[in-house]
Amino acid sequence: MESSSPTKKVRAYMNPYLAGVLLGLVLLAANFISGRGLGASGAVKSVVVTSVVTVNPHAAESSDFIRDYEKGHTGNPMKNWLVFQMMGVILGAFVSGILSGRLSLKTEHGPQTTSKKRLIFAVAGGILFGFGSQLGRGCTSGSALSGLAVMSAGGILTMMAIFGTGYALAYFFRKNWI
Amino acid sequence: MMGPLSVNDIISGDTNFLLAFFIGIAFGFVLEQAGFSSSRRLAGVFYGYDMTVLKVFFTGGITAMTGILLFGLFGWMDLSMVYVNPTFLTSAISGGVIMGAGFILGGYCPGTSFCGAAIGKVDAMVFIGGLFLGVYIWGFGFDLWKDMYVAGNMGSPKIGEWLGISDGLMALAIVVIAFAAFFVSEWVESRMAKSGKEN
Amino acid sequence: MKEELIISGRMNPYVDPTLNIWHWQIPLYLFLGGLAAGILVFAALSYIRGREEAHPWAVKKVPFLAPVLLVAGLACLFFDLNHKLFFWRLYTTVKLQSPMSWGAWVLLVVTPLSIVWSALHIREFFPNWDWKYTWLKEAEKFANKYKLALAWVMLIYSVILGVYTGILFSAFNARPLWNTSILGPLFLASGLSAGAAAIVMFTRSKEERAYFARVDLIIIGIELFLITHMFMGFMASTQVQIEAANLFLGGPYTAPFWIFVVFLGLVVPAILDVLELFDYHVPAIVPSLLVLAGSLMLRFLISFAGQESRYLY
């Protein structure tokens, strides 16, 4: 094989502005086709609701959380726009990883920390983000990005709160990243 | 043909799910190509060594925003049928604060963590596990924060309505802010690169 | 006086009964049978073509799965029976016009054949295997002597097994979705594709993997062709067939069918196989698992949607 073999080299990331325009077009398509923005945490919620209802239907009936969910949704919680969209996201990212030679099992962490510490912080961050996305009615994609696209006041507030807090806390967690 | 297609019953609800899958593929592909599958790259925005998140996020936001406004102007899309995220003042801010803390700790947000997991990032998979735990905690303790969740309901206002200016003007203002942010982030990146060399 | 108007309309579930008697057992069995058929077809074909050394996994090792899959499939069938103790009645009759009779007899031939084939290659896994009894040793010698004939018989019967999994549906002409002759070749192709995927998943030989990935690509092409023609046939047919097809074209099975069967089960593995041929790094297990899952979903969706499709309007 010649040296141009694509397996050998990891391809560079896309120009951020080009990626942004493409991302915007995807978001526009979602609004044009489905009248809604993109999202991620909603799919997690669907899985959680499904698991709760499956494991303990009686407790689920009396739970306000489940009732609150069922107010806005009918039928099988897995038959949900965001669930299908998230399956696509995983596939799209996977194919992109193959094409760019970025497919590998590894833990990414800053130079001053260990994999173990990184994973503990990742779980903690996940818990906070999972909780916060429910309180804030959507995550960075569903509330901040999609909210910005439709100029929702709440979405833009949430966006400012997310990034503002990130900057405010950045100093305290700098050892994790730089 | 007038959008939104599914709301106007031009496509069935089930076809809408199918198209959601294809939209998701494009979404995941673009996020991964932009480098959002890497937590260090994502966290870079908070330290100035890599401003990709800001650039991609704002470019995406203003592209979609102008697109939606133009589609409405051309009569291709009924803007009154487009979902506008509702505003609950208390939860929008407190939820955002908690998510911001999650971002700096975990290095991902939910969408990007799935991209990272798809290409084998273990920290992303662990982050997803945390997401589920977080939603479970939210669900089981729902009674405790139910009041906070519904407090400050203001309907679904657009940001322009708050400031008393039209959507078009507001959009222009957001585009100007975005370009200013791009300019600043390019400057910060080049400065960081220089100081990196000096060290 | 209070007047009450009672209208018994189509919303009454007893007016238009839907068939809802085939649960998970039948489609799972059809998948297991189709997969076993696919594995055995490739084992026999590669052996007949003298590729035993080039395709060691296809000929000697992967076929060990076949008897396991067939027995598991038979267990599914058994669980589906209402009168479990009367299963033997299937073997008291030979009915050429009944696919169930065909199936019962074909299984009766294929299952022992697959066990014999595995037994012939048992030293692949246990190099020091000893059959202990003389008559077993004699039997092995005998089978080895006629291995080519055995391969031919196995090939023919596994093709019948693969086709029969589809005919089982298409012979049921009371359901418009099933009443298409394309289901036979489609299920055979799907089973072959699953068989090739299983070989790709297990093989340690790079050449063998590349070969069967290519085979899979061709079969996937055939499957896409058959699916397109199945829908073209429905759309060109009577209103009931059009309604049946609409279950997948905007109806409740749209998203699962096109996502899991066509896209994730056929198109994506095909793309991944092509990328692999162009020297990109693709973990072998991913396209293989996608093909297997797609093949399983095809059976489930055709089974469930078929039971919903109907003639009454």
Give the helices and strands, then pairings.
The complex is a heterotrimer of chains A (178), B (199) and C (313).
Chain A (H helix, E strand, L loop, with lengths): L15 H19 L6 H15 L1 H6 L1 H9 L8 H19 L15 H21 L4 H10 L3 H18 L3 H4 L1
Helix pairs in contact in A: 2-5, 7-8
Chain B lengths: L12 H22 L4 H9 L4 H22 L15 H18 L3 H9 L3 H19 L1 H9 L8 H5 L3 H32 L1
Helix pairs in contact in B: 1-5, 3-9, 5-6
Chain C lengths: L24 H24 L7 H6 L3 H16 L18 H22 L13 H12 L1 H24 L12 H20 L3 H30 L3 H8 L7 H24 L7 H24 L5
**N to C succession of SSEs of chain C:** HHHHHHHHHHH
> Using DSSP, what is the number of strands of chain C?
0
Choose one word for the global shape of chain B. Answer: globular
Number of helices of chain B: 9
Q: Domains counted in the coordinates of chain C: how many?
A: 1
Low-confidence stretches of chain B: none
The percent range for helix content of chain B is over 70%
Tally of individual helices of chain C = 11
Ends distance of chain B: 59 Å
Please state the oligomeric state of the protein chains shown: heterotrimer
Quick one: biggest sheet of chain B?
Answer: none
Task: Assign an overall shape of chain C.
Answer: globular
User: Roughly how many Å is the radius of gyration of chain C?
Assistant: 22 Å
Order of helices and strands of chain B: HHHHHHHHH
CATH topology type of chain C: Formate dehydrogenase/DMSO reductase fold
The chain pair forming the largest interface, with residue counts per chain, is: A-B, 123 and 132 residues
Low-confidence blocks of residues of chain C: none
Structural class of chain C: mainly alpha
In CATH, the homologous superfamily of chain C goes by the name Formate dehydrogenase/DMSO reductase domain
CATH class value of chain C: Mainly Alpha
What would your notes on this structure say?
The complex is a heterotrimer of chains A (178), B (199) and C (313). Chain A has helices at residues 16-34, 41-55, 57-62, 64-72, 81-99, 115-135, 140-149, 153-170, 174-177. With 178 residues, chain A is mainly α. Chain A folds into two domains: 11-104, no CATH class; 107-178, no CATH class. The model of chain A is unreliable at 1-7 (pLDDT under 50). The model of chain B has no long low-confidence stretch (mean pLDDT 90). Helices cover 73% and strands 0% of the residues of chain B. Chain B has one domain. Chain B starts with 12 loop residues before the first helix and ends with a helix. In chain B, helix 3 packs antiparallel against helix 9. By secondary structure, chain C is mostly helical. Chain C has a single domain (25-308), classed as Formate dehydrogenase/DMSO reductase fold, CATH 1.20.1630.10. Chain C is built from eleven helices and no strands. The mean pLDDT of chain C is 86. At the A-B interface, helix 1, helix 2, helix 4, helix 5 and helix 6 of A face helix 1, helix 2, helix 3, helix 4 and helix 5 of B.
